[in-house]
Design brief:
Length: about 100
């Protein structure tokens, strides 16, 4: 799986990149039919300035998307990947069990 990480209007972080890649690679080993992952890190525009992580996965069929707002980026990544895992589990059940 190819992983593309973009930091929108904020400085890049090697540790956050490594953390995100590690989490996504775990997902890729569980679901080996994933093709591509695009990750966007943004700073929220509301009063709290929460951290936003958006992840879009390319796979056979429609793309899967998850977004999460949290106090820090690590928690946002965990929540977004957890949401993706649920969606992938549903997709696997409907697609591969005929």
């Amino acid at each position: 799986m190819t992983i593309t990480i973009q930091y929108v209007k904020m400085p890049t972080s090697e540790t956050l990149t490594a953390f995100t890649e590690k989490r996504l690679n775990k997902l890729a080993t569980k679901y080996n039919w994933l093709i591509n992952a695009q990750v966007f890190f943004k700073l929220g525009q509301d009063i709290n300035k929460k951290s936003i992580c958006e992840i879009e996965l390319s796979l056979p069929g429609p793309k899967i998307f998850a977004s999460s707002k949290a106090e820090n980026y690590e928690v946002a990544v965990k929540e977004a990947i957890s949401d993706l895992n649920k969606q992938l589990k549903k997709r696997k059940e409907t697609t591969y069990h005929h």
